[in-house]
Amino acid sequence: MIPELKYDEKGLIPAIIQDAENGDVLMMAYMNSSSLQMTIETGYTHFWSRSRQKYWKKGESSGHLQEVKEMYYDCDADTLLIKVNQIGGIACHTGSRSCFFNKIER
User: Fold this and answer.
1) Which residues lie below 8 Å from residue 85, measured CB to CB, with a gap of 6+?
2) Cα(first)–Cα(last) distance of the chain, in Å?
3) What are the phi and psi torsion angles at 71 (to 5°)?
4) How far apart are CA 31 and CA 13, in angstroms?
5) Which tens digit of pLDDT belongs to each residue from 29-79?
6) From start to end of 20-65, where are the E strands?
7) pTM (predicted TM-score)
8) Which of 27, 41, 80, 88 has CB atoms 3.0–4.6 Å from 15's, for a disulfide?
9) Are 101 and 24 in contact (CB under 8 A)?
């Protein structure tokens, strides 16, 4: 069952993807109600591409699928946290394990 979530004016909600085993933050992407429903039904992450204006299943072409283990929403119901088994170990389209590899130095 999908709870009452707060989508933005474009019908999107941010989804933070985290490694279920070690807690690494792998990526952030956007979902709409349909891609969230696809994720729930299939057990694999599906997102809405803002640039391509279409749905995409993470890893569909690369084989680096994300098998959903747990799903949460925050206290304001406007952000998702999805814990996954990152198949193949790579989440980022650059070939990195995580999309968060650029460090800001103080």
Assistant:
1) 19, 20, 21, 66, 67, 69
2) 43
3) -135, 135
4) 5
5) 999 999 999 999 999 999 999 999 999 999 999 999 999 999 999 999 999
6) 25-31, 46-49, 54-57
7) 0.94
8) 80
9) no
